[in-house]
Hints:
This protein is an alpha+beta fold. It contains 2 helices and 7 strands. Strand 1 and strand 2 (79-88) form a beta hairpin. Helix 1 (2-32) packs antiparallel against helix 2. The radius of gyration is 22 Å and the shape is elongated.
Amino acid sequence: MIYLLWSLFNIGMLVWFLLIAFGALKLFLKEMGMVSTIIFVIGIFSFIKGSVVSNQDKGYQMKQNEAVGMQNLENAISYHLDLSYIYTKDSTYTGQLSSKILVNGLISGHGWNPGLTSAVMENGIVNYHVRGDHQWKLLGLVLYNQDQEFKGTIKVK
């Protein structure tokens, strides 16, 4: 519930910020003119940095004896955190598995920054250990990093 309230608070702060920004822009246009306003807006947007990175595994072909498993790590009202892993159907296999963290839902104002993600299969049982930071943000600025750790076992079929 706290995640949902924090997300709604962040959306409200963003709307409030946009109202203030448009009011200031209108005042700037009135006082300085159109050319100065355009240069001001371009200058503001030049400070915004960001990139879009795809986290999808490209080109991985699953083998015939492999399957995908999912384990829910955290389930809140507005979002959930899942561990996805690829395991072999051979129940006698022992070794490291390919795994990653998936975050779904409304994540405005908070986010997950993965650290260690480990999944090891031993005789049909997957032992997982996941560490990361749950970041609490206000208008994109990180206010607090909350360390989180998940450990457990999963019996595969």
